[in-house]
Amino acid sequence: MIIENASNITCLFDITVIPELKNTKKLSNEQQKGTRGELILSCLKPADTVVLLDEHGKEFRSIEFAEWLQKEQHTARRLVFRNRGAVWVFSSNVSTSK
What we know:
There is one protein chain. This protein has about 100 residues and is α+β, with helices and mostly antiparallel strands. A two-stranded antiparallel sheet has the order 1-2. Strands 3-4 form a two-stranded parallel ribbon. About 5% of the residues are buried. It has helices spanning about 30-40, 60-75, 90-95, and strands at about 1-5, 10, 50, 80. It is built from 3 helices and 4 strands. The longest helix is centred in the middle third of the chain and has 14 residues, at about 30-40. It is elongated.
């Protein structure tokens, strides 16, 4: 996708949907977290900057977010946004990988 704003700054981005796990009845919560974490990690590259979006995280007004995003685009090769909480971070195989 391509988004262009009023300042004529073009932003390219892709959306990747991590599928829900199937047949999880026999897996413990920790195993499910680990499997989800591995799926997420398989989509990341070593130089990625991961931003976790959480309802309890820092809040930005639109202009503040645009300024933050512009600053990050200059320093990060690729920004990856992850939403729906950060439960997967707490599985041991994911939290120690970065």
